[in-house]
Fold these 4 entries.
Entry 1:
Amino acid sequence: MTGAGNLLVIFGPTASGKSALAMEVARQSGAEILSADSMQVYRHMDIGTAKPTAAERAEVLHHGVDVVEPVEEFTVAKFVTLADATIAQATESGRPLIITGGTPLYFKSLFDGIFEGPGADAALREELRTLPNAVLHAQLSHVDPTAAARIHENDTKRLIRAIEVFKLTGKPITSWQTEWAAGGSRHQATFIGLQWERDALNRRINARAKLMIEAGWLEETRALYDRFGNLSLTSGEATGYRHLHAHLGGLMTLDDAVEQIKISTRQLARRQMKWFRRFPETTWLNGERPTIDLCADVMARWRGSPTGAQPG
């Protein structure tokens, strides 16, 4: 097990206020921040990924932001490598580090290790891509109902991978992941989760989508596609950009695009919470509380943790 007790994890669904809380704790503790967000790694995708502002990054050192171009692939393995190096550096310097973001698989892989599974089978994947998502989901439901219950029918990439693992090994991906989860943690940390009543979070998500459009998200999307043409498979999964691109291509109105963004984001938030609920030893706090109050609570818990740092 690596990583001393200078690590604090703050996670929660999108729009839950975790970034604002992490910033406030960092200000009071002198900590640096490591982003565990699979889309904030991409340059030029700022508004739509709710990336920390230039002023925030000047005030607090952020790692894991603006790492690669949007046409590049960024894998979980690359994140773990980056995160391990950041944690080692923070441990050596004695500087506290806050890990925050909304990508559950990043946290899972960082603390429990990467689930390797069998290698990709290009021919099999090509065959599966010809099938409608409803058929893929039905196939997965038959061989691995647990995985089918947590993978949305629209999530083509994960549906194909789950079916691929079963076809190549004869064993459901859920079984592999259960064995993977049985190992010990790779790093020690204090885990804080932010939870919201669903309707309140949905209202917050809807309001944030409107604010992002007002902040120039449509113009950011136009510039992104004008410059790069297409996004990579991983950056292309970022919520909202494909809807806005469809609008720019005349395939839907802006109002329809924004409505689809709201729906997709609410669905994302529900999937995130299902994942985050599986993390043991997490203290869940009410995200609707004022940030300054949450900060005081988090600081006390971080200091009071038997493995915690003594920031501030």
Note: Strands lie at 7-11, 32-35, 62-63, 97-101, 190-195, 282-286.
Entry 2:
Amino acid sequence: MNLEAFEAERGPAWRSLDDGLRMAGGRPERLGPEGVLRLGGLYRQAAADLAYARRRFPGDPVVARLESLVMRGRGAVYGQASRRGGLADFLAHGYWRRLAEAPGALAAAWLLLLGPAVATGLWAAADPGAALGLVPAEFQAAADPPAEGRDFAAGEGAAFSFEVLTNNIQVTLTAFAGGILLGLGTVLALVYNGLLLGAVAGLAFDAGNGTAFLRLVSAHGPLELSCIAVGGAAGLRMGWSLIAPGPRRRGVALRAAARRAVEMALGTIPWLVLCGFAEGFLTGPDLPVEVQLGIGVALAALFWGLVLWRGRAGGRGRRQRRPRDFARR
């Protein structure tokens, strides 16, 4: 079927779907039971037409037209179920689905973060004088931490916790926002933070302060690095949508990727808050370093365990909650 015949045959159904969406105004129940069923049927047909158009007519304006129509239709058909769950459903299921569906981006983010960290840590241990010049002045104290780690009074701990929270959110969102620059900003943010982490760690261990360094970072570090990796993965997904948009136009591909990336970044913020509290209150001498390290590993294991558990279980639950009439072909 050529393009003209395709549009002539399927165009009336697209116009009917568009009319129905306009009448519904974001509330399909206005159409009544029969109208809702008809809207669902028209949406499914349009989604099938979009798949066909992407394969047969890539780059043609009809593809962008159908993408817009199907996106509006999906919001109307499935929007009610999504709105019922709201924020709680997103934090319980949606966020973890977003992470579980991006294993490649997460792996790349971890590689960009830990690869430079390991290399720079070995270099700093071998040539501490040169490595010290890489560390900004405000971070050089971390390369020679006090043996007891940080020991705050309650008020000081709360203030420091807030400072850490602000810094962690800034680093994570910088890694995320860099995706708009074809992912280059994200790559630079991840590599820079990896270099800084490796240099500080290498200098601390070379100076005999390895235990003090672990006391300083172990309670929050594994979870904090996980959050930064998630922000980086979100940015890389946006950047890749611009580099390789597939059959879609770059603007359409970027919008789709950006929505998922924003969800990944925003869903990470509560965990960054937890990192701030952990660093503010668990880095002093009150706890043995083994306990602090155990807490850090446990927090990271909880985070990635939820990715594996909620990422899969949430996806199954969502399919089961779809209205039956809309899902039937």
Note: Confidence is low (pLDDT under 50) at residues 154-161, 313-329.
Entry 3:
Amino acid sequence: MQRFESKVVLITGAASGIGQASAYRIAEEGGRIACVDIAADAAEKTAATIRDNGGDAVAFACDISYCDSINSTVTKIVEHYGKLDALCNIAGMLRFDKTEDVNLEDWNRMLAVNLTGTFFMCQAVLPHLVETQGYIVNMASTAAHGAHAWTAAYAASKGGVMAMTRTIAIEFGRRKVNANTISPASVETPMVDLARTQLPEGADMSLLQKVLPFDGNRPPSAVANLVAFLASEDAVHINGIDIRIDGGLMA
């Protein structure tokens, strides 16, 4: 199946985790991948792996918490590939803090990366996606639905992503651009592994029972399969929704 033959897909967070897995998955189907990440060397490794397997990928360093970096990166990608067919906003950050301990600096950083960066990346690519009748896939989280302790800032940022994406879906649906979100849970990624080592001191660990899915943790590739679907023409009649991929956690 070659759903992405001749298609150009911008993937943020492509250096690791779900972003990297999505880059590999879409490249397998013929997609030309713009691997975007703040970790330039790691993004280049992702792109090099795709090229070594016969694919087309270029790495672009970008800090999505800064609009200038976003706009410059999108310009470079379009100059290189000539167009954009899909945006997969997967870059993000996670940390656990007791609600009473959240400080303004950490709150602002969380929103800058997860919400503000996602929005302005969408804004930058939308004119190009209108031309190609393209697709946006934004990464939310089951934390936006509830049942996640110590994630006040993270949950707020991901809830904002869901609401913002629905607005884009309505505004751009008649211009043939589809925008949807994915809410994963219990995915084994470097971001989650790091956050687990930084749980709040003295936290009630029994609360973790509320975030354990029936079928255990899954690799990033499980989410990448859904990313590829929503970024493809198979999802042409899906717009403005959030899909949970959580093993039944929120059922």
Note: The helical segments are 17-28, 40-52, 67-81, 104-132, 152-172, 190-196, 220-230.
Entry 4:
Amino acid sequence: MSLIDLSNKVVLITGGSRGIGAATAALLARAGARVAITYRARAEDAHAVVAAIGAERAMAIQADMADRDANASTVSAAVARFGGLDCYIANAGVWPVDDVAVSDLTDARWRDTLAINLDGVFYGCRAAIRAMRDRDDGRIVIVTSTAGQRGEAFHADYAASKGALISFVKSLAIEVAPAITVNSVAPGWVDTEMSDRPYKAAGGRGRAEIERSIPLRRIATAEDIAGPIAFLCSSLGRHITGETINVNGGAVLCG
């Protein structure tokens, strides 16, 4: 038995076809969990995650996580397949790569970013809480960002959405205690496809410049973020709620 034992636990991870979501699905499955993941467009990647875990213990659900009804039906599908829900991991999100000053930020970009990063998490958590009412040891983990702690110039939409989630975590943790713990994990730079553009900037020097800005001198892997998520889902994290675990290599020291 591993130190982190999630045997017989049912986990739903949004945005699980790649990056942090896929790494988290793999890790939690190794700890014994049955795992449902959502994807929006990358069906091949999502089904590869399921195949790697084993179809008897994993499922992929196509859904637009900005949509209220899709969030509810996703939770229902996981419960119907596995008989309940113990852990909900709100990972799906967007980071618009183009730098845009607030004075030039369009209504459409603002709404699109908040629709998935904030509204979608609210819809998903609401549905997950309803599904967990009969459980007495539920877990919700929301993936936020250092941008929500320190702000991010020219990405105010993204920073605002992630900062709102950090406050949402604190509010929700009190509401649903003691039956469910609610926490967030706030990554800094992570080696995922979403960040390819800044890594390749400055003639290919962008990644090296970013690494120099991090005290631990490396960019996190997706697995580096999955580990703290697994901890919070396990019995080891049972007395932590309303908190944000910072996983940024020391780049943002915010207490």
Note: The two ends are 33 Å apart (CA to CA).
